[in-house]
Specification:
Strand 3 and strand 4 form a beta hairpin. The chain is globular. It is built from 13 helices and eleven strands. Helix 1 crosses helix 4. The protein has one domain. The relative contact order is 0.18. By secondary structure, it is of the alpha+beta class. A four-stranded antiparallel β-sheet has the order 1-2-8-5, sandwiched between helices. The structure holds cobalamin and iron/sulfur cluster (2 copies). The site of cobalamin (B12) has 37 residues, from helix 2, helix 5, strand 8, strand 10 and helix 7.
């Protein structure tokens, strides 16, 4: 049986629904490990203690999947149609969370793509993930030539902006790598750090996660107050640093059917109706939504802290 080529891997991933694919080789990311360790020493991780674990794997992706020969990085955009509003009767909900959970969508796409590729190459073995593995995803996507890391610390794709998720597939095949994206195009712009309602964007493309509204509304489990009290109306995530970025203002893509239409419940759900929903009904209503993550209690906490 023939082995897959980089062209075939890319075309299968694009046909399954990814919007950009780049390939690189596994690398030792010791500089990034050191930066992450310093970041943690500053306490920027807050309650996200998982970031303190598996440092060896973060540094060397081969420990995650010893057979890995190629790191295939994929972008999936979640742009919304013009006129879309993050404002709901509950408060502002980040646009990534308005439709189905990207973890589910991306996993389904990777699973379908790997099956297709394995039907051509029986010895092909792979692992895939988005967000969930101890991997420097933005750096790998940069090494795979997909964009640069902006001052808000997110990856920006040239002429496309940053409204996307990164998914990674590790394969046991030597594929042709792409050129890393070695330039950066923020120039003298400071729009994201100027606009951040929580002053969370620090010099050196660093974000103090504890201050960031995204952490406060999604990641933080406890009710102990910390970080900024200014939530800027957000009850789930925050899009401010990306909304003001000229790369997102200048370039937009057609809405992506996988993430749209937005959950119809969100347009009509008021705080009173939410409070009246049983936990069971809440879980059923939002079974494919990222909002399920902190349960009904978490959402109510976020609304009460506005
Ligand atoms: C933890 C986390 C968060 C935290 C911390 C954010 C952060 N900036 O790190 C919180 C909860 C705040 C968060 C928020 C959001 N997140 Co988040 N998050 C992650 C996660 C799981 C890990 C990121 C991480 O490792 N942070 C640790 C710190 C230390 O990283 P860092 O500050 O960038 O520092 C690195 C570099 O700057 C570099 N560096 C700095 N100086 C130097 C110097 C040298 C010499 C070297 C070598 C390196 C170096 O080294 C550091 C380590 O890599 C990734 C998924 C993943 N596995 O990568 C998603 C991810 C970054 N998040 C994502 C998204 C979409 C978001 C939100 C937009 C969601 C929302 N709408 O609310 C916000 C955006 C906030 C923001 N401006 O960052 C996407 C980003 C997609 C993109 N376009 O880049 C990712 C990639 C998830 C995915 N799979 O799509 N997130
Ligand atoms: S997501 Fe919001 S709070 Fe977090 S860094 Fe961006 S603008 Fe600031
Ligand atoms: S808003 Fe400006 S500084 Fe921030 S990421 Fe975008 S281009 Fe870079």
């Amino acid at each position: 049986m023939p082995q897959v080529s980089s062209e075939l891997v890319k075309s299968v991933l694009i046909s399954t629904g990814f919007h950009a694919v780049g390939i690189t080789r596994p690398q030792l990311l010791s500089g990034h490990r050191k930066q992450l360790e310093d970041w943690i020493l500053n306490g920027f991780q807050g309650e996200m203690s998982y970031l303190e674990r598996n440092m060896e794997i973060r540094e060397d992706i081969r420990l995650l999947f010893p057979e890995v020969r190629s790191v295939v990085c994929c972008l999936m955009f979640y742009d919304k149609p013009s006129g879309f509003s993050v404002q709901t009767p509950l408060g502002k909900i980040s646009r990534y969370a308005a439709g189905p959970d990207y973890h589910l969508v991306i996993r389904e796409k990777f699973s379908a793509a790997l099956k297709i590729l394995q039907s051509t190459d029986g010895g092909l073995n792979g692992r895939f993930f988005t967000d969930s593995a101890p991997v420097f995803e933005r750096e790998y996507a940069r090494l795979a030539g997909l964009g640069w890391i902006g001052n808000h610390s997110l990856l920006i794709a040239p002429k496309r902006g940053s409204w996307f998720f990164i998914g990674i597939m590790l394969l046991n095949r030597d594929l042709e790598p792409d050129q890393p994206f070695n330039s950066a195009h923020c120039g003298t712009c400071t729009a994201c750090s100027d606009a951040c309602p929580a002053d969370a964007i620090l010099p050196g493309k660093t974000v103090n996660a504890v201050a960031c509204i995204s952490y406060q509304t999604i990641e933080k489990k406890s009710d102990t107050p910390d970080g900024s009290s200014n939530r800027d109306g957000w009850i789930w995530g925050c899009d401010r640093c990306q909304e003001v970025c000229p790369w997102n203002k200048r370039f937009s893509r057609p809405p992506v059917p996988d993430f749209f239409p937005a959950d119809p419940e969100l347009a009509s759900l008021t705080p009173d109706r939410l409070a009246a929903l049983s936990e069971n009904k809440f879980r059923k209503t939002f079974s494919r939504s990222p909002l399920i993550r902190r349960g009904k209690k978490g959402l109510i906490r976020n609304i009460s802290l506005l």
